[in-house]
Design brief:
The complex is a heterodimer.
Chain A: H1 2-40, H2 47-72, H3 80-96, H4 100-123, H5 129-148, E1 153-154, H6 158-165, E2 167-168, E3 171-172, H7 173-191, H8 193-203, H9 205-210, H10 215-241, E4 243-244, H11 253-262, H12 274-294, H13 301-319
Antiparallel strand pairs in A: 1-4, 2-3
Helix pairs in contact in A: 1-12, 2-7, 2-8, 2-10, 2-11, 2-12, 3-4, 3-5, 3-10, 4-5, 4-10, 6-10, 7-8, 8-10, 11-12, 12-13
Chain B: H1 3-18, H2 24-30, E1 35-39, H3 46-62, E2 65-69, H4 77-90, E3 94-97, H5 106-114, E4 119-122, E5 133-136, H6 139-153, E6 158-164, H7 170-185, E7 189-196, H8 201-214, E8 220-223, H9 226-238, E9 246-248, H10 254-261, E10 268-270, H11 273-288, E11 296-298, E12 302-304, H12 324-328
Parallel strand pairs in B: 1-2, 1-3, 3-4, 4-5, 5-11, 6-7, 6-8, 8-9
Antiparallel strand pairs in B: 10-12
Helix pairs in contact in B: 1-3, 3-11, 4-5, 6-7, 8-9
Classes of the chains: A mainly alpha, B alpha/beta.
Chain lengths: ~325, ~325
């Protein structure tokens, strides 16, 4: 037992260097993308486009933030898009009904509840995260359908829309919110017991358990947090688009996973961090921005997107930063 | 309208049909209650909700039971194929059908033909199958006509952005064709770019925000549906460019008619799921009763602008049922 503890302790500094490499390499990829787009399009390197890209990236980041934490524990949360959709419908319904505070609380609560259920299924129920969250994905979508019955809610009040569509000193509110969230989660992961436990569990769950960590409780907290953040992202998303229907979260899962991977967080857990996901979100937003500015043909866009994602991760692998852990 | 009244009315309507609130003649004529399996593509899009309400209204008026059949995964081919097979076994009196994919569902409907179930096709046209009739609108003609009227209002010249739907969807391809035909016939119109918004508001809004960076002057935006069009109109306003760009959509969803009334959007084309479904159920019942049904009914294109928007601001529940004779007398 004491051996395991030493192992765990000695692992922490190396994790730190891993993360540094990954973040630096992602920043290089980001810089490269910026340089190429600046050369190709005269409309790219402007202040308004900069703000525009950041605003799109911030929403992506909020959707990927909770997922990052789950992935760090070597888990996955496939239900984020569906939970976002369900929270969005509940919130929009209450908010347009005149209960703004209640609507906000309900969205957060619904997200948290779904997340806690995921956590219980994964730990107490011992269902692999992939299956457990795939199940809750369909339940959340299903409940969304039942709740909405094909209806779309439009026209949220101006005051509420501020968090999605407002500006403070020329900076979009979602960007400010995303930066605050980034700082908070970075602090959580680096400076708190929970944060260090997340890395330890992802690095070696048995070692974490043997060293006396309350792994079950930590994991439930992690999945709960992921759900809570989905509920939060739902609020920003509906405030931005001024509408909600049960399918609002449908296309959001894969880009969220892509942003996490692009950010250098290993799907095998223990390696990566929230900073990387922020960079990954900006890269994703840049790719869409670039294809639009350059007028890439409609039919080519998906293929271009996939290619850039793969190249970007491949460069990492060949460069020796271990996104996939070597045996 | 709020959801609570909607849920109440839907419950009332379904329980009324389920508990046999049928006119006496229908029971006497059929001996047993007539059941029609009414298919929709999904339960998420308000368009199909309007269809369902149209079908249920027709069912109530004609004294038949409507069973709505929808895939739980929106527009899922494999699931709809299974649903069709299940319903062939249940053997309702007729199918009122819309394929999620007109090619992929062909074999399934051929099976229904073999089983002797009359099939009315609505909204998406099918080929190589036996149909009682086809009832729908023509996407290409709709987009063509609304673009023509947009270009006319611009004096036949200007810079236009096209926001596409899901590029692979047949409706999106037909709508794009209509747009391109209208552009070809109007030499003064310059197409700045055509980019996909995937029929979704969030995606379309982000794409359009990017395009605004590239094009400081956009005279008009042609959007492949209303949901995207409303989002685009809002992002124009948010960027301080509201009122300078004419935005058009297609479908006639409540959010779009509200935007037109408020002067944020220029026009939409009314794609009435309510009317299509109502007429389709009527056609099925007429066939069962041995009354004549034409080979196809194509609903005329109705362009909604600020001048006539008041008539289109009704919810599907409030809409008047379409008059069968008006559409079939030529």
């Amino acid at each position: 037992m004491s051996v395991e503890v030493t192992k765990l302790k000695s692992r922490w500094p190396s994790l730190h260097t891993d993360r540094l490499f990954v973040v630096v390499s992602r920043l290089i990829a980001l810089a490269l993308l910026v340089v190429v787009l600046s050369i190709l399009s005269p409309y790219f390197l402007t202040w308004t486009n900069f703000i525009n890209v950041l605003r799109q990236a911030s929403l992506q980041f909020m959707m990927s933030a909770g997922l990052t934490i789950v992935v760090l524990t070597a888990g996955i949360d496939l239900s984020i898009g569906a939970v976002l959709g369900l929270s969005a419908c509940i919130a929009a319904s209450l908010i347009t009904g005149g209960f703004m505070i209640l609507g906000i609380a309900a969205a957060l609560f619904a997200g948290l509840a779904c997340g806690l259920v995921n956590g219980m299924l994964v730990t107490v129920g011992r269902i692999p995260p992939f299956i457990a969250t795939y199940g809750t994905l369909w339940i959340a979508f299903g409940l969304g359908y039942v709740f909405m019955k094909g209806e779309v809610i439009y026209g949220l009040p101006e005051g509420f829309r501020f968090i999605g569509a407002g500006f403070v000193w020329g900076i979009p509110v979602p960007v400010i919110v995303a930066v605050a969230l980034l700082a908070a989660l970075h602090f959580l992961l680096q400076k708190t017991v929970l944060g260090r436990a997340i890395y330890a569990i992802g690095g070696n769950p048995d070692a974490a358990r043997l060293s006396g960590m309350p792994v079950t409780r930590r994991l439930i907290t992690v999945y709960g947090l992921s759900g809570l953040l989905s509920g939060f992202a739902a609020l920003v998303a509906i405030a931005r688009i001024n509408a909600a229907d049960s399918s609002v979260g449908e296309d959001l899962l894969l880009p969220a996973i892509a942003a996490v991977c692009l950010g250098g967080t290993s799907l095998f857990g223990g390696v990566g961090g929230i900073m990387g996901t922020a960079v990954g979100s900006v890269i994703l937003a840049l790719i869409v921005n670039g294809t639009n500015l350059l007028g890439v043909q409609t039919f080519w866009q998906n293929a271009v997107m996939g290619t850039i994602i793969l190249i970007s991760v491949l460069v990492d692998q060949l460069g020796g930063t271990r996104l996939v852990r070597d045996q | 309208m709020d959801r609570r009244t909607f849920i109440k009315t839907t419950l009332a309507a379904t329980s009324a049909t389920a508990f046999g609130a049928m006119p006496e003649f229908a029971r006497a004529q059929a001996g047993k209650p007539v059941t029609i399996a009414f298919f929709v593509k999904n339960v998420t899009n308000p368009f199909w909700k309007a269809c369902r309400i149209g079908a249920e209204k027709a069912g109530k008026a004609l004294g038949v039971t409507i069973e709505t059949v929808a895939p739980t995964k929106p527009d899922n081919i494999e699931e709809q194929t299974r649903l069709v097979e299940d319903w062939i076994i249940k053997k309702p009196d007729a199918f009122v059908f819309v394929p999620v994919d007109y090619k992929a569902l062909e074999p399934s409907i051929q099976k229904a033909n073999k089983a002797g179930i009359p099939v009315v096709d609505y909204n998406n046209r099918m080929t190589n199958v036996d149909l009682v009739t086809y009832i729908g609108s023509d996407d290409e003609v709709m987009e063509y006509q609304i673009c023509k009227s947009l270009f006319e209002s611009m004096g036949g010249k200007g810079k236009v952005v096209h926001i596409d739907g899901v590029p692979a969807a047949s409706t999106a391809q037909a709508r794009k064709k209509g747009f391109e035909r209208a552009v070809k016939e109007t030499p003064g119109i310059e197409v700045l770019t055509s980019q996909p918004g995937n029929y979704r508001r969030l995606s379309a809004v982000q794409v359009f925000e990017n395009l605004m960076q590239r094009f400081p002057v956009i005279d008009a935006v042609v959007s492949a549906n209303d949901d995207m069009a409303v989002g685009i109109a809002e992002s124009l306003a948010a960027a301080g460019r509201g009122g300078k760009t004419k935005v058009i959509g297609i479908d006639g969803i409540p959010d779009a008619t509200a935007a037109i009334a408020a002067g944020k959007m220029f026009a939409t084309a009314d794609f009435s799921g309510h009317d299509q479904a109502y007429l389709a159920v009527t056609a099925a019942v007429r066939k069962l009763r041995g009354q004549p049904v034409p080979k196809e009914i194509i609903l005329p294109v109705v362009i909604v602008t600020k001048d006539n928007v008041k008539n289109f601001m009704k919810t599907p529940e409030e809409r008047d049922p379409p008059d069968w004779n008006k559409y079939t007398s030529g």
